[in-house]
Amino acid sequence: MQLDFFPSRTLTVYLAKLFTVRIAAMLFVLVLVLLMLDLLSKSGEILAVPGNGQGELLTYAGLRVPQLISRFLPYSVLLATLITLVTLNQNSEVIAMKAAGLSAHQVLAPLLLTAGIVSVATFVFNEQVVTKSTQTLKAWEAVEYGPIPTESGVKTNVYLTDGDNILTAAYVAGSGEAIAMRKVTWYRRNPDGMIVEQIDADRARYAGPGWRLEGGLTRFNVQNAVTDDPTSVVVGEGLLPEQIDLAKIDPDGEPFWTLGSSIAEFERAGRRTSELRAKWWHKISGPLSAFLMPLLGAVAAFGLARSGQLFVRAVIGMALGFAYFVVDNAALAMGSFGGYPPFLAAWSPFLLFLLIGETVLIRTEE
């Protein structure tokens, strides 16, 4: 019986249903509260644009909700784990299950199964929904909540160099010679790296060679402190469309199955890809964090409720869960600047806390 993790179909369905309802409830509460706080901080910027109103606020909320769901679903699973297990413990249901011959792993098995299904659903949701909403929202933020861009292949906050000179664009869309930029700034520098001229423009297009800056041009000469307003200027004649195509990859806005080929293109171009590789692996390990939460919170399920230690056990379970998220973010940060190999940065927190959770469960309950 000890090797049969689901000895009772009725008990499995009961625990899975109990756990699922609490996950949904905690997720709803977290997303609702955080969305309201986010809207309070952003509504002023959105409504400051002429023509924006309630419709744009609803659009912003619709784009933010998938991001909030993706980010806080593992936290919801952790909180739901603690609430479910503490309730079962207080009602002596855990004692009844152990008296019937179930091991600690068998008690947790329905919760782990549910959390595993949540992890798979999270991965699909992230790659099908969250990536699209993230790309759209970043493009909208890049144009300061003006008309929502409809172009494909959008990149935001692009930084390019042409020798000593620098070209920046808040928004880049399209590919090849059809590339269009918005909110562009050109910095001309001398060989010592000092800026001698700055040109701001609303947009830029490929002029073959170079990039023609147009719309709202303002040119400032640093040496003479003189400002003028030319009609159009061609800059960056050494910048080719192919360089801009490879200027930036946004792993948050690109699905898992296309991000790998984009990273390979970066590698062929001789670009550094350790941060991108770490985030590519994290697209798998990140959703799997939900699977860990029942194991890390399992300490709250056992021990006598009347012993006075149930609260302490719940706190320990919560501390283990939140410690995982801290270590996970720290490992990704280390991977970003090459402190960890990409695979280790993405997977080491998951494997470490999987071993910690199993160790705690086996030594205390098995």
Number of helices: 10
The tally of beta strands, per DSSP, is 8
Q: From N to C, what is the helix and strand string?
A: HHHHEEEEEEEEHHHHHH
Give the overall shape, derived from the CA principal axes: elongated
Cα-based radius of gyration, to the nearest Å: 26 Å
Low-confidence regions = none
> Whole-Å distance between the termini?
14 Å
β content, as a range?
Answer: 5-15%
Helix content: 55-70%
Keywords: Cell membrane, Membrane, Transmembrane, Transmembrane helix
Organism: Qipengyuania citrea
Subcellular location: Cell membrane
InterPro entries: LptG, LptG/LptF_permease
Keywords:
366 residues; alpha+beta; elongated
What does this structure look like?
The protein has 366 residues and is of the alpha+beta class. The chain folds into two domains: 9-144 and 274-365, no CATH class; 155-248, no CATH class. It has helices at residues 9-47, 54-90, 93-99, 104-142, 241-245, 256-268, 274-285, 289-296, 310-336, 342-365; strands spanning 155-162, 165-173, 180-189, 195-206, 211-214, 218-221, 226-228, 232-235. Strands 1, 2, 3, 4, 5, 6, 7 and 8 form an eight-stranded antiparallel β-sheet that branches. A hairpin with a 4-residue loop joins strand 4 (195-206) and strand 5 (211-214). Helix 2 (54-90) crosses helix 9. The longest helix is centred in the first third of the chain and has 39 residues, at 9-47. It is elongated and about 85 Å long. The model has no long low-confidence stretch (mean pLDDT 85). It is a multi-pass membrane protein. It comes from Qipengyuania citrea.
